[in-house]
Specification:
single chain
């Protein structure tokens, strides 16, 4: 395995996840018109996506530290699959809005999954 690729992907994911969590209070007030329930749901989704990205980064780092085992490879392929599903969802939804951060999500998700694949090969 080429661990540096995996650690790079994990760092990118952790930073993007943290950016979601940190910026949630700044983004939500910009949503007009939106009901209180809409804002709560979007807040929940932004935080959930951020936590998911940080979690995926943590898993990638943890299993990579275990070394090149079948479990490590299986978990990393699972992370790649999840990132590609998240990318597809982002392409079908957020990528179609004007807010640039939404357009970056599929690029970051797919790019990170490709870095992990490069680390696995």
């Amino acid at each position: 395995m080429r661990e540096a690729w995996i650690y790079t992907a994990a760092t990118l994911l952790a930073l993007w996840g943290a950016a979601h969590i940190i910026n949630t209070p700044r983004v939500i007030p910009t949503l007009h018109p939106a009901t209180v329930d809409d804002r709560r749901v979007i807040t929940m989704e932004w935080i959930n996506e951020g936590l998911t990205l940080v979690f995926l980064a943590g898993i990638a780092i943890t299993v990579t530290l275990l070394g090149d085992t079948n479990v490590t490879r299986s978990v990393l392929w699972g992370v790649v699959a999840m990132l590609n599903v998240m990318s597809a969802v982002s392409l079908a939804t957020g990528f179609r809005v004007k807010f640039i951060a939404y357009r970056l999500c599929p690029v970051i998700f797919t790019g990170s999954s490709l870095l992990i694949v490069a680390g696995l090969l």
